[in-house]
Amino acid sequence: MNGDNPEQLTVLISDLLKHAHTSNHRHCIVIAGEQIWTRHITSNFLEQCIDKDIAWLSTSPPENITTIVPEKIQSVLGNESDIIVFDAYSGFNPDAFGAVAGIICGGGLLLLLTPELSNWKNYNDPEYKRITVFPTSPDEMTGRFLKRLSRVIQEHQATTIIEQYQPLPTPSFPVLHDHKSTLHEGAIYKTDDQKNAVEAIKKVVTGHRRRPLVLTSDRGRGKSAALGIAAAQLMQQGVDRIIVTAPRSEAVKILFEHTIKLLENSEATKRLIQTSTSTLEYFPPDELVRNEHKAKLLLVDEAAAIPAPILEQLLKKYSRVVFASTVHGYEGTGRGFAIRFHNTLQRLTPNWKKLEINQPIRWAENDPLEDLTFKSLLLDSNLAHGKLSAPLNVSDLIFERMDRNKLADDESTLQSLFGLLINAHYQTKPSDLRYLLDGPNLSVYVLRKEKTIIATALLAAEGGFNEDIANEIYHGNRRPHGHLTPEVLASHIGIKKSPLLIGARIVRIAVQPSLQNSGIGTFFLDSILKHSSLKNYDYLSSSFGATMDLLNFWKKSNYSPIRIGIQQNSSSGEHSVLMFKPISKVGKEIFMAANLQFFRQFTEQLTDSLQYLEPCLVEFLLRQESINDNSELDELDRENVNAFVNKQRIYEACPASIKNITLLILQNSKLSEQITIEHKKLLIRKVLQKHDWKMLTNTNENTGKKSILENLRTALKPFVKKSL
Fold first, then answer.
1. C-alpha–C-alpha distance, residues 722 and 719, integer Å
2. What is the pLDDT of residues 295-342, one digit of tens each?
3. Could you list the residue range(s) of the whole structural domain that residue 702 is in?
4. How close are the terminal C-alpha atoms of the chain, in Å?
5. Is 406 exposed, middle or buried (0-12, 13-18, 19+ CB in 10 A)?
6. N or C, where is the chain less crowded by C-beta within 10 Å?
7. Are 572 and 692 in a shared domain?
8. Are the beta carbons of 488 and 545 closer than 8 angstroms?
9. Could you give the number of structural domains in the chain?
């Protein structure tokens, strides 16, 4: 059979579709060749599939066909299609590929349209526009990711490849068991696994308090459906209020659909289901942390994509919680979630339960497309095997800058490295794999014990602009992609010459979980700083969501804050912070100017955009050596504070003096240690963040303004007669 014969191709693809339907498996068919040819072959076949639900993921799909735009992939999650056409000529977006693979139902096909596989690495992929960094242009990209992807596709036994000008393949149809018979057709529960999950969820409400459930599964196992079924049954049984949260409201679509299906006489919106006696309502994670929303049960879906500090706060606030997570998700990872959150669960709720849903519902077990998706996007990457535990002798460790050309061809090393990143960060996505291999300004460093990678870091080169471009950045007329630190220093902080400097931003750093908090990370950062490739750099920097653990980690290596974001991340509830470490003389000059400006703005931001920043973060950010030069309190301030402490002056008569002494105390670790944590929180919230009396009564368990004033006086009393 010849690849140029449309009729023979249609017959071949039709046979594959029939086999997929019989086995309830999903298959990937790669149609590789010139763009016009791939679209023609695909269109001819689809004309025979008028009874199928078909969608094209493309920037230029045929007319009169359902289209999925990669930028709006979230809008189709929860849908199902029989056939998806993924047009790689429009760009291979790894996140979109991982997402659409999950909406193809059992017995369906993914048609992947690509250039000739042996030459795909040389294709000027439109996706390069997302990861190119000034001054690199898209046609200068390396194609490492596409080269590896081509190899994985060609090595995958269950993928059928149809190439232009090549003989048609003879697909092998392995003998497969029909798993449809194991499903409970027509029943509320499709599998025994799902039924067990629903019962376990309900037991969280009816059983003992403080025994959360962690529910994990891969996609297509009915996890979200189980949450929705359990919610409906609990509402029918009289549970009056259930709250659900997830990284995005779209993530609870399936959950809501299954709840509505089982409830009679209910009213529903995208975020609320209400009966005459019960409600099920969605709130973003940060909203639940900030404000009080009572409920008999909290359901946390896609928990792996929510930062562990937010999950911990939810665990503390709600006595009955179910955490549900996808194990090998295209967004976040349940394995990383389990590793990072396990200790928290053990510490706060040692009687927590775990349940896995293994049997697929939407397709049969051992699904070929699922396996291809895992392998191509490294969703199933595991941490390095072997017994690694602290302490390690640093003299036995090997520091290395990776050759990314070799890394792309070394599947074992790449899996270990990416698996480490997946388990270290809650939002590692398939697109990060592409950036790791192709990012033009990126360097990859590792720390090894013999052949085992124990730590890795990704560094992005930044800056080095000429004066004209630096001036444009300073005035906000230009924002070169991929140069975060120079842009912040120039356009946000106002240091005009900062884009002239050459620096590197540490985009990610990850250490094996068993070796964390052992000094390995700090040793790794020191090794990176000493590396010859950074000899001519002016600074190193890093930007991340501010938590105490991370701030303390970076502080150990003498990184200091120069900016904190004024808005919280919608899913994490964290403010981003930019940490800076000067290297050269000019780098130190820039740092001193930036650090001083940060302090001046920060104290004012605390009464405005940062009014709800956690007190522990406020104290950390205030306590920087370079800004602790106001070591004396003037006589008038001292008299005012003394009069306030002795009830001779009301608070409203001397807030500036109280603020000045509060700043001095918090900036001095020896003075700060003399105050209880609760008193410290009160000083920060009232004196620096200007919370009103009513709000403080609610948050500090005080009985009213009078008790708050007494606590403020008690906090300041040890210092009024001392020389500060």
1. 5
2. 999 999 988 888 778 899 999 999 999 999 887 765 545 555 666 688
3. 628-719
4. 90
5. exposed
6. N
7. no
8. no
9. 4
Residue 389 lies in a domain: no
Dump pLDDT digits (tens) for 430-454.
999 999 999 999 999 999 999 899 9
Pair (146, 223) in one structural domain: no
Could you tell me if residue 362 is inside a domain?
Answer: no
pTM higher than the cut 0.90:
no
410 Cβ contact partners less than 8 Å away, ≥ 6 residues apart: none
Cβ-contact 153, 118 below 8 angstroms:
no
CA dihedral sign, ordered 623, 629, 633, 634: negative
Please give the Cα distance from 710 to 557 (Å, whole number): 40
Average pLDDT of the chain to the nearest whole number: 89
Sheet containing strand 321-326, edge to edge, reads: 267-268, 272-274, 279-282, 241-245, 297-300, 321-326, 213-217, 353-357
Read off the pLDDT of each residue in 387-412 and give the average, rounded to a whole number.
Answer: 88
CA-closest candidate to residue 161, choices 343, 39, 33: 33
Pairing of strands 27-32, 160-163: parallel
CATH code: domain of residue 271:
3.40.50.300
Nearest to 640 by CA among 649, 652, 632, 630: 649
pLDDT in tens, 203-229: 999 999 999 999 988 888 999 999 999
Q: Would residue 374 count as lying in a domain? A: no
pLDDT in tens, 485-508: 999 999 999 999 999 999 999 999
- What six digits make up the tokens of 651? 């608070």
Residue 675 three-state SS: coil
For 13, the token pair is 């693809």
Same domain, 616 and 639: no
What pLDDT, on a 0 to 100 scale, did the predictor assign at position 179? 47
Same domain, 335 and 222: yes
Residues 20 and 162 in one domain: yes
**Which domain-ending residue is among 123, 155, 179?**
179
pLDDT digits (tens, 9 = 90+) for 345-378: 999 999 999 999 999 998 999 999 999 999 999 9
For the chain, what's the residue count? 724
